[in-house]
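Reviewer 2 asked us to include a model.

Predict the structure of this chain.
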Amino acid sequence: MQCAVSALRAELERARNEAGQALAHAQATAAADIRQLQATVGALREELERANGERDIALQQAHAASRGEIQQLRDTASALRSELERARNDTDAAVREAVSAAQGEISQLRATAGSLREALERAQVDKEIALQQEKKAQAEERMQFQDTIRALRDRLEAATGEASR
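Predicted model (C-alpha cells):
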C-alpha cells in the first residue's frame, strides 16, 4: 500500500507539476496575449487619435476655405454693389447733363424764337408803316393829279370860254 500511496503521491506530484507548468504556460500565453492586445489597443488608439487629428485638420481647412470663399463672395458682392452704384451715379450724371443741355438748348431756342417773333412784328409794323406811307403818298399824288386836272380843266374851260366869246 505504501507503494500505491507513493505511486499516487508521485502521480499527484507529477499532476501538480504538470498543472503548474500548464498554469505557467497559460499565464505566459495570457501575458503574451495581453501584451499583444495592449499593443493592438495602443496602435488602434494612436490610429484613432491620428484619424481624429486629420479629421480636425480637414475640418479646420474646410472652415478656412469656407471662410475664404465667403469673404471672397462678400468682397465680390461689395465690388458689384459699388460698381452698380457707380453706374447709377454715372447714369444720373449723364441724365442731368442731358437735361441741362436740353434746358440750355430750349432756352436758346426760346430766346431765338422771341427774337424772331420781335423781328417779325417789327417787320410787320415797318411793312404796315411803309404801306400806309405809300397809301398816303398815293393819296397825295391823286389829290395833286386831281388838283392839276381841275386846274387844267379850269384853264381849258377858261381858254375855250374866251375863244368862244
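The first helix runs from residue 2 to 163. The helical segments are 2-163. We have added this to the supplementary material.
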